[in-house]
Amino acid sequence: MRLFVALEITSAVREALANTAATLKPESDGVRWSRPAALHVTLKFLGETDVQKLDSIRAVLAKINSPEWVALRFRGVGFFPDEIRPRVMWCGIEATPNLRELAASLDRSLELCGVPAEARAFVPHVTLARLNSARNVQKLVRAAAPLKSYDFGAARESEFHLFESVLKPSGSEYQKLSTFSFVKDAP
Length: 187
Fold this sequence. Notes:
five-stranded antiparallel β-sheet; Cyclic Phosphodiesterase, Chain: A; four-stranded antiparallel β-sheet; 4 helices; about 25% helix; alpha+beta
């Protein structure tokens, strides 16, 4: 099983991101756009995981907590690794400090299940598109430039989800396996 832990996105933010993607699609060929229903904020990618570890992973995830909700502001469009050699187009996220703490807690806790710790720093974002085989990417970069600080909306989250990612020729499909409240007293 290929697993990851993520926050879902509200329908209002999802719609704003999908509308922006629709306006940018004509600007570059060969871009693999994320399906609106698949947009999420990854907190921890577990990768290929033995199904026999699923119960222990769920037990560890159930113990993760935070004293308060995570507040998120979805702002701006950018590129990884940069605009010169873009491979991923993303929407940035400004969040309360407990988002980074939550991601770090997940990383530490899942090590107990044999999941390697992250080598890279946590950078909260929503992947909008992958540009690996894209043509005319600089045209897309120029078209996205006015969106560097665009506000796509806000959300407050008190739960995260364990997803399975199934790779298919049409792209990855995500199935929600479990939901965990990380604010134990959230209304």
